[in-house]
Amino acid sequence: MSSEQLGVKEGKLAPCPDKPNCVSSQSTDEKHGMKPIPYNGTAEEALTKLKTILTNRKRTEIVEADTHYIRAEEKSKLFKFVDDIEFYIDTASENIHFRSASRTGYSDMGVNKKRMNEIREAFQNA
Question: Could you tell me the CATH number of the domain that includes residue 29?
Answer without folding.
Answer: 3.30.310.80
